[in-house]
Amino acid sequence: MTDTIVAMAVATFLTRAIGLWGTPLRAPWVLRAVGLVPVAAFAVLVSANLELRPGAWFRWLIVALGGWLSWRGVPVWACLGIGLALYLVGSSIFR
Amino acid sequence: MKQGRFRSGLFDALPLWLGVVPFGFVYAAVGRRAGLSIWEIQLMSVLVYAGGAQFTVVRLVAERAPRHFLIVATALINLRHVLYGVSLAPHLKAVRAGVRALAAFFIVDESYGLGMRAFLAGRGSASYLVGAGVSLYLAWNVGTALGILFTAALPDPRNLGLDLVFPLTFAALLAPLLRQARNRWAALTAFIAGLVVVPALPAGVGFVAATMLGMLGGMWVRD
Fold it and tell me: Which residues in chain A are closer than 8 Å to B165, comparing Cβ atoms?
């Protein structure tokens, strides 16, 4: 199993390094697309961690609140703290 | 590397320990149940350092999947790192190869999020990215070690709501980027694609497909 873990580590490192050492990007449309990677990736990381079911509305609300606070200039760590505190209090009320 | 920036990255990632440590803990507990040895569980966290892939591999081990499946699954699930690397490359092209390799090792969703936000705000650096990555690496490995030591002590973090750390963090990282129309369209498309495509496709592939759909959604909008 140790050999397999080492091979998994190499595969993982390659996925991380390939992009960093990739060919130089110059075409304007490619640069525009690459500029959209963080926006698109963050949005997927939000929605992939949420669920489409009736009981999940409170989680959606807290996540939306976290986004709104960040939009208003609140630091990420504070959005996280406020969101988790509200979630812990709220989920015990709405359960 | 600049020590001050490294330390900033290290400390900025600390709130995320709340979510990462319990999941490292759960990973170790699940790994033990799947029949992996203590050594194998910790070694995977030390060398592979990719939570999603490690959870999947543990499941495959429990199902007695062939070894090469584990390697292919790991590569597929981590395909999104290629996109992360491509978007980070312009910010790191002046950095020495050794530092770039170090930064590459520590790229995970959360360190990419913090590092990229710092770059977009004009205060990013390789040191900051590595600092955030090292912090999260420590959290993941501490969580794994604690999980090995106290397997039955902690309830599922999902029951405590700690899994909310991840969408909450990424929502907070995303929101300030939505001031441009193109970014808003890309985010909206990616968000919907994340809900529909990610559960429907194999792990890793769905994430890459949804991200690329989001990029396409934003490409056609002029700011």
Answer: 80, 84
